[in-house]
Amino acid sequence: MIRFARYFALLSIIAITSGCATLPPYRPQPKEVAIPPSATATTLGKIAALSSPGDELTGFRLMPIGAFALDTRVQLAQRAEKTLDVQYYVLADDRTGRYLMRALRDAALRGVRVRILMDDLYEGGEDDLLLGLAATPNVEIRLFNPFPGGRAGFASRFVAAGPFEFEHLQHRMHNKLFIADNAMAVAGGRNIADEYFMRSESENFVDLDVFVCGSVVTELSDIFDTYWNSKFVRPLEDVAHASKPHNQLVADFKTAMSPENAPVPQALPANDQLGYGPLRDDLDGGRLGLIWGIAFAYADPPSKISPEASDEETVQYNLIELMEAAKTEVLISSPYLIPGKTGMNMMIHDRKNGVRVRIMTNSLASTDEPVVHIGYDHYRIPMLENGVELYELSTGRIKRATRLGVFGTSIGRLHAKIAVIDRQTVFLGSMNFDPRSAHENTELAIIAENGQLAREVVRVLDIAQFQSCYKVQLDKNGHLQWVTPGDTDAEVLTEEPDTSFWKRFELNLLSPLAPEELL
User: Fold this and answer.
1) 406 CB contacts (<8 Å, ≥6 apart)?
2) Cα–Cα separations (whole angstroms), residue 424 to 201, 331, 459
3) pLDDT tens digits for range 417-435
4) Catalytic positions, please?
5) What's the pTM value of the predicted model, to 2 decimals?
């Protein structure tokens, strides 16, 4: 995720000297909703009904391995018979993005209604590709909070918007959701790009998705419909302008979807670290082996981007309430960690009540957003002084932890956004524990009440923590140090691990450009 603070001054200067583009007038669209859930209308609906022990329950399967998470999405696209609803912050023009787009196109050609809702931040430069996909019968693409111009790429859109649009346009839709036939869904932290599924040569993310079916899917479909029909969403064709004739768009899209440009991923492993095999095996067998429990879906309203939005409606507000009610333990994984006053008050409250608070986040070396580390650094000592246990992902140690994936020469980064309260309640979704998720971006989460699911999440995080992290602690003088968890003979580090002097020097230079409210 790009944080705008470091670019704000430069972009504002450029924008002041530029003409400002505007969006065309809002054109209300006919309201569209998900198909009613049915145990007989579709094959996926039948499988979900046969697998469920009760109508009020939701079935879960965690997907810590990127290969399984991607294959599950593609399997759902290939088996859908009525609708596919797809909502993402990033849908990249790379091998993974094209591979999934091909599956969506093929579903549409079978007569499946395909609705794709994207945030517009990273869509710049992909207009022709997406217009080619949207030319497929039964496919419709809409953009959340679109930029008024600058369709050539990322930086150009802020220049085209002008300085007075900056505050409005930094509000983005960060949700991640994939729903098939209103019967099965995938949610969690992964965007659609190579690095979220261990397919990048430069960097790859440790992340976590959850497959769900049952009661919560209807709630997720309602959330999707709320966004799809929102006034903050525009049809792609109202915003994007093709650079070539329609026939050429279609031909180029077909070429982009070829096996050479959208290759099938490598063969799946036999199972993941939890012992689960590919979900496709269960789908082939007609019955799903899942963990069943009570679940609820929450999402920030699309109107969060408007000035009158209330913080009490947000996903983070609901999570803070859950954490403050903890009795024994709060476990958090957040790649970007800036707790702010509200988060610190929650931690202090819990620690005073004897609640263990354990947090895993990125180190300076593993983060893809160094300016966020500036904000996080302000809270490290206060958190540790209040008894919070803090772990940071190590780019060196993670390459030796093969249970999280084979990183090769790529940089390993944390991207999973999870909380577990009292080893009973699981919060899993798109939200980081930082100001952007709290106030700027819209977010989505599933909250599940199930001890078995909670134990599986804790197991995944424990593997990452003990095999791939440094524990951060204070020495007797109150200075930071980093040690290997559980190793009494480990070397104690007194500088940010896996970083150079110049990396730390760069961070100091960026510090004045990183006000916390923009991180």
Assistant:
1) 198
2) 37, 11, 13
3) 999 999 999 999 999 999 9
4) 174, 176, 181, 415, 417, 422
5) 0.94
